[in-house]
Design goal:
Length: 423
């Protein structure tokens, strides 16, 4: 049994995915407006809100997907399979560019990779019976993990953590917590995760580095990542991961807070009373995060406890405003753009990661350097977008917006044909 979809939640999800697509696809990573960049380390920009917003929204949707609490083997299997499907979609993004077979190169190799990508997408997003979903999810998971730890040349440093991988883990634990516990227990678990994470990070010395610290690459979370997943971490750091092991624990806290707000929105009381409750909760979370920031700095890469409260508070206030405008006042005409993004998030998440890899792999002649080639993405940007703008920041943003328009057209077609791809 599922409750009727909450339009404001779909719109909020759509806005979040839309913003994610823009910040992840600039024309040039060296030309980005500051609000569209992540904070260098401590701090929080609008871009740093995207990931926790999505985790929060996922938690909020749980009470709507399962309004009647019932937990047995069948329900557990559904939660596990959905988590595996999301995890595998994320892990495949790390594997895609590593696929090599039969000595293929260039376009033939790219064609092979695309065939595999569509096969994986069909296996993980297709609408099958639960038995088939289970077999496919477990099978794909075992194949990807086996390749990642096989020691084969092209797969030996495959990144294991990732955005979708973290979302999968948070969904798994948050869903079970929702079905198996009451609100009081959920709050106690949340407090335990956030306070426990702070104590561990702030007071346990880091082997090989010395006293506990919150610095880049020398903190306890980084040490755990490097110890347990050495060689399988974020390529930009190699010794730690922004979606690492220890920092996933407070991320579960973000999911729990979303789940809490979802339960408030599900209350059988006057909608204005719900708005008052969520507005108070959001304000309290923001203030709590800012206060905790004094002792445990707001930091996305560490997913600090202050970051959990602060971002969940902003997410709550945003959703409260949308809930009031859309679901109470009924102003829905302007929502179509974000609605078409919000009902199909996983197809965007997955293929929005594949397309840039494909465009970079397709080589064309560089008009500026005789005899040399550049990727198709660079060619489109340098020779199609840049000449239209004097400011490189505007050119880079224009490319990102063009990419978002491209996806909007695809998602509009899916929406018109009632094609919704679910994990």
């Amino acid at each position: 049994m599922t409750k009727e979809r909450l339009t404001s939640l779909d719109v909020f999800r759509g806005f979040t995915i839309f913003l994610m697509t823009i910040v992840n696809n600039p024309g040039s990573w060296s030309s980005i407006y500051p609000p569209l960049e992540h904070a260098e380390w401590h701090g929080c920009t609008p871009t740093d809100l995207v990931f926790p917003f999505f985790v929060f929204i996922m938690g909020t949707a749980i009470p709507f997907a399962m309004p009647v609490k019932h937990f047995d083997g069948s329900v557990f299997n559904k939660i596990l399979v959905r988590s595996l499907r999301i995890f595998c979609l994320g892990l495949f993004l790390s594997v895609f560019s590593r696929i090599h077979l039969f000595g293929l190169e260039g376009i033939p190799l790219l064609g092979l990779r695309l065939i595999v990508a569509f096969a994986v997408a069909y296996a993980l997003l297709g609408n099958f019976s639960m038995k088939v979903k289970t077999i496919l999810a477990v099978g794909v998971f075992l194949i990807l993990i086996s390749l990642s730890f096989s020691g084969l040349e092209h797969f030996e440093d495959t990144r294991i953590p990732g955005v979708l991988q973290r979302i999968a883990i948070v969904y798994f634990f948050t869903s079970i917590l929702y079905l198996k516990t009451n609100l009081k227990t959920q709050i106690l678990v949340l407090a335990g995760l956030l306070v426990g994470y702070w104590l561990v990070m702030a007071f346990i010395p880091v082997p090989g580095f010395g006293p506990a610290n919150f610095d880049k690459g020398t903190n306890l979370a980084a040490w755990i990542d490097d110890t347990l997943l050495n060689g399988h971490l974020w390529a930009s750091s190699k010794t730690w991961d922004p979606e690492g092991i220890l920092s996933t624990l407070p991320a579960i806290g973000t999911g729990i807070l979303g789940m809490y707000i979802g339960q408030l929105l599900n209350l059988s009381v006057d909608k204005i009373e719900i708005v008052k409750k969520t507005a108070i909760a959001g304000t309290a979370l923001v203030i709590g995060g800012l206060i905790w920031n004094i002792f445990f700095p707001i930091n996305k890469s560490l997913w600090t406890s202050s970051y959990v409260l602060y971002t969940a508070g902003i997410a709550t206030l945003c959703l409260t405003l949308l809930y009031y405008i859309i679901d109470i006042k009924g102003h829905k005409k302007w929502t179509k753009l974000f609605l078409i993004w919000g009902v199909n998030p996983m197809i965007v998440f997955f293929f929005s990661g594949i397309i840039p890899r494909v465009l970079s792999a397709i080589k064309v002649a560089d008009p500026e350097k005789a005899g040399e080639e550049i990727g198709l993405q660079a060619y489109i940007y340098n020779h199609g977008i840049v000449p239209c703008f004097e400011n490189p920041l505007n050119a880079s943003l224009a490319y990102a917006l063009s990419y978002a328009v491209f996806w909007s057209f695809i998602l509009w077609i899916f929406f018109k044909k009632k094609l919704i791809f679910k994990v």
